[in-house]
């Protein structure tokens, strides 16, 4: 493995979902290996994060998003990660009122309110699998959604891991969300594949959970969402029995710190 001098990184968080980010618009970090990404995300020996992102140059867009899970593998869309990367792009000098970027699941657009509130447009959802005790849908990443009476009483690690590694999902993996309806909105806790543990928040997960709270009416919805790491809001329009568009994930995204680290 090559020996590298210190590299410069930034750490951002969105409702406790935290990420190592690097400005890769000149291709400086294309060399990163799975083991190096895993090292950077390690909470004891590296920086510590749920994932790592590269801000890339992308023709036709303000930037491109490349996302890796904490296990070092490139992964599907991360909603809170996307919001954090938008905030980072603004810090790196991309000042357009509306920013557009390309992620693994397709194009996204985003707006910023103040210094730290990011509104991120998600992909449309057309089709939801409805089981007797669950829903299963893709909001950029696959999500299993289960409603419970007391989300704080759920053993998210054990129950979530059991579903993520069952016969149905073990090969490709799924994220698992436990959702409690509140007087205003919902409380969501998520077991994330790739992290293989509960995270403080999951953007695509709260999006999936919010969509599943919609009533039969085809109209615009605004769903407040509580997570262990803070509050988010999901806005969307229900356009059919199992179809949704104009989906926006809205919430804070802030710089935690920046620094230098030497890779192994």
Automatic annotation (TrEMBL):
Active site (UniProt): 78 (proton donor), 202 (proton acceptor)
SUPFAM superfamilies noted in UniProt: Diaminopimelate epimerase-like
Annotated EC: 5.1.1.7
Residues flagged as site, Could be important to modulate the pK values of the two catalytic cysteine residues: 143, 192
Keywords linked to the UniProt accession: Amino-acid biosynthesis, Cytoplasm, Isomerase, Lysine biosynthesis
GO cellular component: cytosol
One GO molecular-function entry: diaminopimelate epimerase activity
Pfam families recorded: DAP_epimerase (PF01678)
Catalytic activity: (2S,6S)-2,6-diaminopimelate = meso-2,6-diaminopimelate
GO process annotations (BP): lysine biosynthetic process via diaminopimelate
Superkingdom in the source lineage: Bacteria
Pathway recorded for this protein: Amino-acid biosynthesis; L-lysine biosynthesis via DAP pathway; DL-2,6-diaminopimelate from LL-2,6-diaminopimelate: step 1/1
Subcellular location: Cytoplasm
Gene3D superfamilies assigned to the protein according to its UniProt record, in alphabetical order: Diaminopimelate Epimerase, Chain A, domain 1 (3.10.310.10)
Binding annotation for substrate: 17, 69, 79-80, 175, 192-193, 203-204
HAMAP family hit by this protein: DAP_epimerase
Its job: Catalyzes the stereoinversion of LL-2,6-diaminopimelate (L,L-DAP) to meso-diaminopimelate (meso-DAP), a precursor of L-lysine and an essential component of the bacterial peptidoglycan.
Family listed: Belongs to the diaminopimelate epimerase family.
SUBUNIT field: Homodimer.
Protein's UniProt name: Diaminopimelate epimerase
Gene of this entry: dapF
């Amino acid at each position: 493995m090559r020996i590298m001098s210190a590299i410069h990184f930034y750490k951002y968080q969105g409702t406790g979902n935290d990420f190592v980010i690097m400005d890769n618009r000149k291709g400086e970090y294309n060399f990163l290996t799975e083991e190096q990404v895993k090292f950077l995300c390690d909470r004891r020996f590296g920086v510590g994060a749920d994932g790592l992102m590269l801000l890339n140059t992308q023709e036709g867009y303000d930037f491109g998003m490349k996302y890796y899970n904490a296990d070092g593998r490139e992964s599907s869309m991360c909603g809170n990660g996307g919001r954090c990367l938008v905030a980072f792009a603004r810090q790196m000098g991309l000042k357009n009122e509306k920013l557009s970027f390309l992620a693994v699941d397709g194009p996204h657009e985003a707006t910023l309110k103040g210094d730290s509130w990011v509104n991120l447009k998600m992909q449309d959802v057309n089709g939801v699998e409805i089981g007797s005790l669950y829903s299963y849908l893709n909001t950029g990443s696959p999500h299993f959604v289960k409603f419970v009476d007391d989300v704080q009483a759920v053993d998210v690690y054990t129950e979530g891991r059991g579903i993520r590694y069952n016969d149905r999902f073990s090969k490709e993996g799924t994220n698992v969300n436990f959702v409690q309806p509140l007087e205003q909105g919902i409380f969501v806790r998520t077991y994330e594949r790739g992290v293989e543990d509960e995270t403080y928040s999951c953007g695509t997960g709260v999006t999936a959970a919010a969509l599943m709270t919609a009533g039969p009416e085809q109209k615009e919805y605004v769903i407040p969402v509580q997570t262990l790491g803070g509050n988010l809001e999901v806005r969307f329009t229900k356009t059919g029995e199992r179809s949704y568009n104009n989906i926006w994930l809205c919430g804070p995204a802030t710089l935690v710190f920046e620094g230098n680290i030497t890779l192994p």
